[in-house]
UniProtKB/TrEMBL annotation:
Classification of source organism: Eukaryota, Viridiplantae, Streptophyta, Embryophyta, Tracheophyta
UniProt cross-references to SUPFAM superfamilies, sorted A to Z: Ankyrin repeat
Organism of origin: Sphenostylis stenocarpa
ANK repeat placement: 79-111
Subcellular location field: Cell membrane
Principal location: membrane
The keyword Transmembrane helix is assigned to this record: yes
Transmembrane segments: 273-296, 501-520, 540-560, 580-603, 615-637
Keywords: ANK repeat, Membrane, Transmembrane, Transmembrane helix
Name of this chain's protein: PGG domain-containing protein
Pfam entry (one): Ank_2
GO cellular component, one term: plasma membrane
Length: 657
């Protein structure tokens, strides 16, 4: 009964932060600290780590014998986490250092998920804690603490969590991890290929964002891993001889020294002050206009992420041995669970990273792999699709453009056929439901689908035009069948838009006709010449009314021609959007001309004393039309881009696998 009371008192003291009382309980009962005091089976030491009580932990370990301290530190909770697991996950370097010095073997201890403290520090991006624990490792070339039971390594996880600065240093510390496979057969390069948002080529930015992006200076941190490893080794040997109040130098992240030696890129050194001044001024202007400097900071972080992701990619490709024959017959990553992982991977065809990059649109990776391993162009997936077919099927214009510039690719890869007998043209003709193009409306989606089909058609040999797949379909038949629903939706959208615009154009044409036949001030009875002829306002009225009549009639004819169209695939894709664009241009011109002619005609009936102030009224009268134009401007610009742009612009999203 007394022991239960002590455990309850331990829980209450820990919850209230009364750590001195916890020490008093321990003095009365040394085994009390091993007791589980929460439903999660946490000990008092777990709770102390949760709340960051480094002083309590240090004092406690100093006042108990080594046997008891090892027992307490090795006590797991319901998740199998020791206090060191929690300290590593939270990134508490001081506690990590204290526990690791007392029992370095805890760094190798796995929880029920197969995660070591070193692994948890890495996947949570706790750089300082990671290097602290790495410094205490007795065998720094042992990769076992870096691997989870499912085969995921710290490199897989840090790349997945986009901690690229830490991932780059992990590659230098554990080069064997660069080729490590998890139970799904994925290497770190596979994981990186699935993150197109981390690369510039797959990141969409507005015009102003791109300007700022290209002007920003990215400070590259200098890595000095070898020196830090030497320091870490010396500190770990020093062990308990070091001062308890100071941390070993291995616990300091590599970035501390690197921040002192920053290297600026993209501009000559003498431009540094000037560029920084421009950035400060830009931030000040943004604050004045209510935008805030966070906008530039966001672009800065995006550029830094792109830079570090590319560095990680370069390192992984440089160390990859995907295409090198292994004469030893063993995997390049020799671990205890390698055999089990290889057996799982053999059950399904392993997808090459270049194929994933082509599918997700990571242009940088496709280019780098082809430059390093030209044989990668022959890689195929389980459906016998190579890099060209996957880029075309997933509508990746930048990857496609890169591949067309390589003669070797055009001579061989573009002639490849998948397991269903589909050529590149068949895959370009097939439409899926994920709407890849960055345009609204079914009609413009159809327009860019047709452009993509024509673009690919010009790249494949002519004898592929009439080629049949395993279903007995040509590429043209595939295009017609797969785009049938899109054509119907496009027809409905074009008809609805044209119908609405036809009504407005008819009203404007009626008003324009009436206005053009009216003569402000009347005509001379003797000569029939307008009385106000020769005045500037009358000339403006005459010209504006004529333009309004002609443009409104033109718009009416164009919209009627859309409504009476056959709505074939090519009509919906090319001809009708052009007519809609011209019709909208004519309609806006007619509305603007009607307003100008009204203001010019009204000018003659205003008293001379009020003419100086009437311009403001005319400006206010034009505001509704200006608002209408601004609302319709995005649609207008999308139509223009879809018509005049040769290669469509892709919507970049993470593709699930």
């Amino acid at each position: 009964m007394g022991e239960i009371v002590e455990i309850e008192s331990l829980f209450n003291y820990a919850m209230k932060g009364q750590w001195r009382e916890v020490l008093e309980v321990y003095k009365n009962n040394p085994r009390a600290l091993e007791a589980k005091v929460t439903k999660a089976e946490d000990t008092v030491l777990h709770i102390a780590v949760y709340v960051g009580q480094a002083n309590f932990l240090t004092t406690l370990l100093e006042n108990i014998n080594e046997y008891v301290s090892l027992a307490i530190l090795n006590t797991p909770n319901s998740m199998g986490n020791t206090p060191l697991h929690l300290a590593a996950e939270l990134g508490n370097v001081e506690i990590c250092n204290t526990i690791a010095k007392r029992d370095p073997k805890l760094i190798l201890c796995q929880n029920f998920e197969g995660e070591t403290p070193l692994y948890l520090a890495a996947i949570h991006g706790s750089k300082d804690a990671f290097f602290c624990l790495h410094g205490h490792l007795q065998n720094k070339h042992d990769c076992s603490p870096c691997i989870k039971t499912n085969g995921d390594t710290i490199l897989h996880s840090t790349i997945s969590n986009e901690c690229f600065g830490l991932a780059l240093q992990i590659i230098r510390l554990y080069p064997n991890l660069a080729d490590a496979l998890n139970q799904d057969g994925s290497s770190p390069l596979h994981i990186l290929a699935m993150k197109p948002n981390c690369f510039q080529s797959s990141t969409r930015m507005e015009f102003l964002d791109r300007i700022i992006y290209n002007c920003l200076l990215v400070e590259e941190l200098k890595e000095e891993i070898e020196e830090d490893q030497t320091i870490a080794t010396k500190d770990s040997k020093a062990g308990t001889d070091a001062d308890e109040e100071s941390l070993p130098r291995s616990c300091r992240t590599n970035f501390e020294r690197a921040h002192k030696e920053k290297k600026l890129h993209r501009f000559p050194p003498n431009w540094e002050v000037f560029i920084r001044f421009l950035i400060i001024m830009m931030k000040a202007l943004l604050i004045l206009f209510g935008v805030g400097a966070s906008w530039i900071d966001k672009i800065q972080r995006k550029k830094e992420k792109h830079m570090w992701a590319k560095k990680v990619m370069d390192e992984l490709i440089m160390r990859a041995s995907l295409y090198k024959y292994d004469y030893s017959g063993n995997s390049s990553f020799d671990l205890q669970h390698d055999h089990d992982i290889e057996k799982r991977v053999e059950k399904k065809k392993r997808v090459s990273p270049i194929l994933i990059a082509a599918k997700t649109g990571v242009n940088e990776m496709v280019e780098k792999i082809l430059d390093t391993f030209p044989v990668a162009i022959h890689d195929v997936d389980s459906d016998n699709k190579n890099v060209v077919l996957l880029a075309i099927e997933n509508r990746q214009p930048r990857v496609y453009k890169l591949l067309t510039k390589r003669n070797l690719v055009k001579e061989s890869a573009f002639r490849h056929i998948d397991s269903q007998g589909n050529s590149a043209l068949h895959l370009a003709a097939a439409y899926r439901n994920h709407k890849p193009w960055l345009v609204p409306g079914a009609a413009m989606q159809m327009q860019w689908e047709y452009k993509w089909y024509k673009l690919v058609k010009n790249s494949v040999p002519p004898n592929f035009y009439a080629r049949y797949n395993n279903k007995g379909q040509t590429a043209k038949q595939v295009f017609i069948n797969s785009h049938e629903l899109l054509v119907k939706e496009g027809r409905k959208w074009l008809s609805k838009t044209s119908d609405s615009c036809t009504l407005v154009a008819a009203l404007v044409a009626t008003v324009a006709f009436t206005t053009s036949t009216a003569i402000p001030g009347g005509a001379s009875e003797e000569t029939g010449v307008p009385v106000l002829n020769g005045q500037l306002a009358f000339k403006v009225f005459a010209l504006a009314s004529l333009v309004a009549l002609c443009s409104s009639v033109t718009a009416l004819v164009l919209f009627l021609s859309i409504l009476t169209s056959r709505f074939q695939e090519k009509d919906v894709a090319m001809h009708l959007p052009k007519k809609l664009l011209l019709g909208m241009t004519s309609l806006w011109t007619s509305i603007a001309s009607i307003l100008i002619s009204f203001c010019a005609g009204h000018y003659f009936i205003i008293e001379d004393g009020m003419k100086s102030s009437v311009y403001l009224i005319y400006g206010v009268t034009c505001l509704p039309v200006s608002f209408f134009v601004l609302v319709q401007l995005p649609l207008y610009l999308d139509l223009m881009l879809a018509i005049f742009r040769k290669v469509p612009q892709r919507v970049y999203k993470v593709i699930s696998h």
